[in-house]
Amino acid sequence: MDAKAIHEKLVAAFGERVTGVNLEAASPFAVVATEAIAEVAAFCKAEKDLAFDNLMNLSAVDYPKETPPRMEVVYHLLSYTHGHTFALKVHLPREDPRAPTVEGVWGVANWHEREAREIFGITFDGHPHLVNLYLPGEFEGFPLRKTFALLARHVKPW
After folding, report:
1. Using CA atoms, how far apart are residues 38 and 109, in angstroms rounded to an integer?
2. What is the pLDDT of residues 91-100, one digit of tens each?
3. What residues contact residue 114 under an 8 Å CB cut-off, 6+ apart?
């Protein structure tokens, strides 16, 4: 199934909750309403024509200079069954960025979401154990946000 057909299937199922698309990108993607991401993820896994049985990666991006400033979570999907890939994105405010967890859909999201919370400050509501993987508990700030002062590494414990 090509990216256009995947997008059409998502729009048919979720309508206006699919808020954007770029089928010409190196990794074609659809933007999904934040509150719908868990439902869309479950559909992407369960729908036999999609069969996205693997969350290859969950990444985050910080856009502090956008209007309005925002964070983005990107879900990179793979279907072992069909051999196709696609990405889903959600846009979040930079202040208190939150999205529903997809850990119940793909177990591997557990660690990906923990990492995104730890280094970007994104909270995944409903996550069963959202604790740090890398940084000590007393660490202040989110080191992969573009506004994080890198010089702070000299005075803060790693």
Report:
1. 11
2. 999 999 999 9
3. 127, 129, 130, 131, 132, 133
Q: How far apart (Å, rounded) are the C-alpha atoms in residues 10 and 157?
A: 45
Burial of 151 (0-12, 13-18, 19+ CB in 10 A): exposed
Q: What is the pTM of this model?
A: 0.92
Strand partners, 87: 29, 76
CA distances from 86 to 33, 40, 69, 76, 139 (A): 17, 13, 25, 6, 35
Helix, strand or coil, per DSSP, at residue 96: coil
At position 52, the amino acid (one-letter code) is: F
Residues of the chain with pLDDT > 70: what percent? 95
Asked if residues 88 and 59 have their Cβ atoms less than 8 Å apart, the reply is: no
Q: 70: buried, middle or exposed (CB in 10 Å: 19+, 13-18, 0-12)?
A: middle
Chain segment 49-80, per-residue pLDDT in tens: 999 999 999 999 999 999 999 999 999 999 99
